[in-house]
Amino acid sequence: MQTPYSDQPRYRDDPSAKDEMTVNEKASLAAQYNLGTLEDAVTPPVNKRRCNFIRGCRSFFGEASQSICTRVSMVLLKVVLFIALLGFFVKSTFFGFKPQCTHSKSSGGFSVNNWHDHGPSEERDISINTTTTSIEGAFPLYDSLNLTTVTGSIAVVIDPQPANPEKPDKPARVSIRTESGSISVSFRLPGTHPALSDAKKIQSLYHSEEPSALSLSNTKNAKYSNMHAFLTPRAYEVEIHTASGSVSGQVAFSNLVNISTISGSVSANLIPLVFLPAEDEEPPRDPDDDPYHPPHDGRDDLVPARPANISIVTSTVTGTVQVSLDEPFFPPPPEEERKKANNKPGRPKNLPHTIAAHHVAHGAGSLHVVYPPSWAGRVHAATTGKGQVSIEGDGLIVRGGNKTVADGVRYPDFEDDGEAAWWGASGKMNVTVASDGGMVDFFARG
């Protein structure tokens, strides 16, 4: 039954109108308002707007949450990569990837690993750098040994090793440096002993018959022995520096030793290494003094050059320096050389151009210097301010001077052949002992 037509207005939000609406009326209404579905036609406008708003929010926040997750993942990945790169940089900068040394967890220090007597030159240079970690143990000296720390202490025994057969004249250099740590060092030489009885750690390391466990931790290191029966005739140069720490021990050198500190104390015995030529060896010559054979005449390759200059330096600012120059050590030649009947050690055939020693306190530091009985040469001692000078010794002639300045000389005592046993006994050595306000004491043993 059709509903009678009525000219009264009907509204979509009127329930009665909705119920009474026929199919044709609904279709006509949808076409009139351009609505796509019948549900749109019968849905109230308020509810429609609410549904559209909810759909839009869901769509927006769904895409936004996906974008935020992606960005967070990328940020986390970048942070991880940055931390990894930063760790690699810090490790390579402060600790270094040095194959020549390994950290010792048992002793809290560093030791050496993987060294050979006659390895390539790059394996004969040992360098260890730390900040607060101490460096302790026995270390071989091939071509160079560099030990550096900032606040850590250094207590080492150094065992000179044979030179590289391909470069037998290459100098053996030692460099030990620290800012505030203490330094105790001893060169292990045949027939010598540590000079400082109170250096217990050095004593134990020195008299140890077994090489350091860390030094032999690799089987390739089996050829390394603590001390060789001979030293290769070559230059041995030593430099030791500390700012506020102390320096103690015995130091062997052939032509250069430099020990410096600012406010720390120095108590060291210096052992000159003197390599005597064979009796049948042609003496070195100075081309400048040879008018018959001028320089670059072709003979320089056949005749060894004049020995290197000798330089001994100890310096401080406000610290105390106690230095003793010992009698020289004459290293025995290799066994195969000793077997030669006509190759017996002789006296030096020539001497260096310059033989000088400087013991200086740039501030009010005090100096106490002792030289061996065989020493001969000249000494100049001076101080300023409230400091005083004292120089004395058997056979030492003091000329003039006062409480702040003095000069002395001890003439050489040549034996029957008229030649000195070593450069320190030649009388050509000049010694300077000076302080800027501190005590100065020089004594030549007799």
From TrEMBL:
Biased composition (Basic and acidic residues): 284-303
Protein name (database record): Uncharacterized protein
TM helices/strands, residue ranges: 75-97
Domain of life where this protein originates: Eukaryota
Positions of region (Disordered): 278-303, 325-350
Alphabetically ordered keywords of this record: Membrane, Transmembrane, Transmembrane helix
Keyword Transmembrane: yes
